[in-house]
Automatic annotation (TrEMBL):
It comes from the Archaea. This is DUF4203 domain-containing protein. It is found in: Membrane. The chain crosses the membrane at residues 6-23, 30-48, 54-72, 79-103, 109-127, 132-151, 181-200.
Amino acid sequence: MDVPVQAVFVVGGLLVGLLGVHLERPAVMLVGFAPGAFLGATYAPRFVSGVEEPMFTVAVGAIAIVAGAVAAKVAWAAWMLVHAIPGFVAGVAVSAPILGVSLSNPEPNAALATAVGVGLVGAALAWKLHHLFVAVFTGTVGAVMVSVGAFGENVYVPMGRAVLRAPEAELRLFVESARSLGTPAVALAVVFALVQLLSLRRRSEPE
């Protein structure tokens, strides 16, 4: 492996491993911003067709940025919702039978309100557990990248098109190859995950 490629793996691994849970929101919002800005730039000329240059370009750019920003917010809200819904459903499903609430024909009452409250608690818990998963996952990915770049470990790296064609097979090959990693990589993954979780805890503590 060439030295520049090694440097990319090491630096990228340190960033992902130590900051993965903090990079999640910018990454998700960027995924939303890009298509939103593209659509904004595509349809903006219809609304500013009578504007002369250079204001035409400025107007199109402004519309694209606003559309991208809105799409980024929507993408993050949708991302949170996707992770919170299972917790909400689980909370209601578990508490409803205990409280005597019929989910097939729910009637507005205190028991139903309590079940919904438990569901909201479940949604919040699911979001917290999601942070734990992200920290462990990105810590592991970062440790693998550093191990490949710094220690010369051999790990199967899935390609983009192959992942789209057969995601389960590509993931299986990656996991099987990662099992051969030595103790330093495992220890590094644990350290990365702990650093992320501690940084989350410090951020959530009141000043």
